[in-house]
Every structure is written in structure tokens, then in C-alpha cells.
Design a protein that fits this description.
The chain is of the alpha+beta class. It folds into 2 domains: 89 residues, no CATH class; 47 residues, no CATH class. It is built from 3 helices and 4 strands; from the N terminus they run ββααβαβ. The strands form 2 sheets. The chain has a two-stranded antiparallel sheet. Helix 1 packs parallel to helix 2. The longest helix has 23 residues. The protein is globular.
């Protein structure tokens, strides 16, 4: 299943790199861009904000991930997001940045069930996980963090 959006270009800086962009290739394209960004900026502090379009309501997976899950397109999309996070973590390791980088994963995406819709209305919390050695400063500890 392919999810279509309004035809729009994908840009880098102000240059069009794909028009119209194909959502099926978006995760792989964004992952390549993120890896290249980290490589270009490895010698100085940087902030990389990487926001996945899937797997909440945008259900798609690129060709290498289609059919890899017993759970249909949703599972295929989860496999691809997992691969992407792995690529980012491997790049940080290869560049020697893993020990000095905070990786913060957060999701406000929840399953579309009646119960989850009610919970979302009642709560502003989103599941999160972060990786960074050490402890948060006093008074800054939050629920839902995971240190490795």
C-alpha cells in the first residue's frame, strides 16, 4: 500500500532534490541526509532533529522493507524506522560521537483505538527514551527516560 500526499517537492536548503517526492523512499532519503549531515558536522557541536512521518497513519515502506514483517505494511514500516535509527546510531559510533551525544527518541503516535483516543485526550505524556551516560542534573529528572 502506498500513501500519497499532495504532490510537493523535497528540498535541501532551497534546492529541489525530488519532485514530486515519493513517500515510499522518504525514510531512506532522510536517513542518508542525516548520516551526511553528521559526517559534515562531526568536528563541532550540532543538533539533528529527525522526525519520522510514519508509522502512525502514514503507512509506507521502501522496496527493501516491503514484505519483511508478518504484520503487513505496519510491521514493514516499523522495520524500516528501526533500520533508520540503527543507521544513525552506527554513524555516531563510527564518528566517535556516541559517548558525547544525547539521542532522544519520542513519539506522540499512538494506536488508533477508542481507548487510546480517550487516553490521548486525558494525557499530554508521550512515550520517550533517551540514551546518554551519566545522570540528569538535580531537579531535571523526568519520567519515561531510559539511560543506557
Amino acid at each position: 500500500m502506498s500513501h500519497s500526499f499532495q504532490p510537493s517537492p523535497m528540498t535541501r536548503d532551497r534546492s529541489v532534490v525530488e519532485q514530486p517526492f515519493r513517500s515510499e523512499n522518504l525514510t531512506q532519503s532522510m536517513t542518508r541526509e542525516a548520516v551526511a549531515f553528521m559526517e559534515r558536522n562531526a568536528a563541532r557541536p550540532f543538533l539533528l532533529f529527525f522526525s519520522f512521518l510514519q508509522v502512525h497513519t502514514a503507512m509506507f515502506a521502501s522496496a527493501p522493507f516491503r514484505g519483511t514483517s508478518r504484520h503487513g505494511i505496519y510491521g514493514d514500516a516499523v522495520h524500516e524506522v528501526d533500520w533508520s535509527v540503527g543507521q544513525i546510531m552506527q554513524t555516531l559510533g563510527r564518528l566517535g560521537l556516541r559517548e558525547n551525544t544525547l539521542v532522544y527518541l519520542s513519539s506522540d503516535h499512538r494506536a488508533l483505538t477508542w481507548r487510546s483516543c480517550l487516553q490521548q485526550v486525558r494525557s499530554t505524556e508521550a512515550p520517550t527514551a533517551s540514551t546518554k551516560q551519566g545522570s540528569p542534573p538535580a531537579g531535571k529528572e523526568g519520567s519515561g527516560s531510559l539511560e543506557s
